[in-house]
Design brief:
heterodimer, A: mainly alpha, two-stranded antiparallel sheet, 5 strands, 55% helix, elongated, B: Butyryl-CoA Dehydrogenase, subunit A, domain 3, 7 strands, 11% strand
């Protein structure tokens, strides 16, 4: 049972790109203004988002157990995982930066994985209450997503700067690829999730 | 009902009556609170000017060294590009491509597209690609991550500051200026107004 207040219930489709409303007629029609494909909702939003989220979940494990970079000083190599890097920052009396990295590379990916999971459960089981709060959760996830790239950029800078042969060298580890993939996959999952599905379940 | 004068909220699909906000207003969706439109003073002119400034700043920010380090007699400068190359040389192609796209190519494309669109709107020149450009701009927006890169530079510098001597290059100042310009660019670009004008140029 859909609310009569939505554009779709009144027979209009909103173009995803330009926001222009069109009358709902036959499938695959084009937007009058921008020529884009019209869909009442993002196509296969739930399935795509769930698939991307599951792959991100799987990659989250190698991203955390493998070393993300190896710092070599005077020939002695020392591999760091994401958590290891944060602990090293705390030991070096750089607590504010450690908190920043903790938020960007551990809390934000976790929040995104759990948050999108909850949003999908919400849509699937049609939890009818607090639609506005769920929409705010969606907005936070969509906004915060890109900031997890912090660790990847930091590694790219460290790898290019600290390259003094055997004296000091930073080598990126296999977890970097996994972590980057987690960030990209969760961003795509959030992009494919259509927040209007939360509101479609409202009575 | 004529669909051209009505609009719908992109996040909850609530059918909305037309409103004509003036500069300084913020139009929120009454149901989900989404920020629908925030008209800006001279949106087209400012976007045009800022994208020219951004395009100019792109060159020093990309070509000149951002940070240099001195460590046990060795010295090295880092640019945006050298980070990508360093990752590539360590066979992390995926991460290298991602860093290249989000720190170099997408910010550049973003500025070029803003420049093209605002120039056409400013001089009232119709172009059949305008809607495509605007659509790309909207999709790319999220993937240009200069501000995240800046945070990455800060964290990397703090990590290195205990063991080596840091030197900030001219490129870094250009990069910070670019960051400010792209931030202003994003806030001056009023998407609703731009789409409306693109629609008017078409007919």
């Amino acid at each position: 049972m859909k609310s009569k207040k939505t554009a779709l219930a009144q027979g209009f489709i909103r173009c995803h790109d330009c926001g222009c409303l069109s009358k709902q007629t036959d499938k695959n029609s084009q937007c009058r203004l921008c020529g884009g494909r019209l869909h009442p909702r993002l196509p296969n939003s739930f399935q795509r988002s769930a698939a991307l989220l599951l792959s991100a979940f799987c990659l989250y494990i190698p991203a955390n157990i493998f070393p993300i970079m190896t710092v070599t000083r005077l020939g002695v190599g020392e591999p760091h995982t994401i958590i290891g890097g944060i602990i090293a920052l705390v030991n070096g009396n750089m607590v504010p930066i450690a908190i920043l990295v903790l938020v960007a590379s551990i809390l934000v990916p976790l929040l995104k994985l759990l948050g999108i999971g909850l949003l999908l459960l919400n849509v699937h089981y049609r939890w009818q209450v607090h639609a506005k709060k769920w929409t705010i959760l969606y907005r936070i996830i969509a906004f915060v997503g890109r900031w997890s790239m912090l660790d990847i950029f930091m590694i790219s800078i460290l790898v290019s700067l600290v390259d003094m042969g055997s004296v000091a060298q930073v080598i990126a580890g296999p977890a970097a690829t996994a972590f980057a993939a987690v960030v990209v996959l969760t961003m795509f999952a959030a992009k494919n999730f259509d927040p209007r599905l939360i509101w479609d379940n409202q009575r | 009902m004529n669909p051209t004068i009505l609009s719908a909220c992109p996040e909850c699909d609530l059918l909305l009556k037309p409103s004509s906000p003036v500069v300084g207003d913020k139009v929120h969706c009454p149901r989900c609170g989404y920020l629908l439109q925030r008209p800006r003073k001279q949106s087209v002119e400012r976007t045009f000017a800022l994208s020219i400034a951004g395009l100019i700043l792109m060159f020093p920010a990309n070509l000149m060294p951002l940070v240099g380090i001195k460590m046990l007699g060795g010295a090295k400068d880092g640019t945006l590009w050298s980070g990508v190359v360093a990752l590539f040389e360590e066979h992390l192609w995926g991460v290298a491509v991602l860093v290249f796209l989000s720190s170099i190519l997408f910010p550049l494309l973003n500025i070029i597209l803003s420049l093209l669109i605002s120039a056409h709107l400013y001089f009232n020149r119709p172009n059949r690609h305008l809607a495509h450009w605007m659509r790309w701009l909207q999709h790319l927006d999220e993937w240009a991550m200069l501000e995240v890169y800046m945070l990455g530079i800060i964290v990397a510098c703090v990590k290195l500051s205990s063991t080596s001597e840091l030197k900030f290059g001219f490129g870094l100042y250009a990069f910070v200026a670019l960051l400010i310009v792209t931030g202003m660019l994003a806030s001056s670009l009023d998407k609703v107004l731009f789409w409306r004008q693109i629609g008017q140029l078409r007919t």
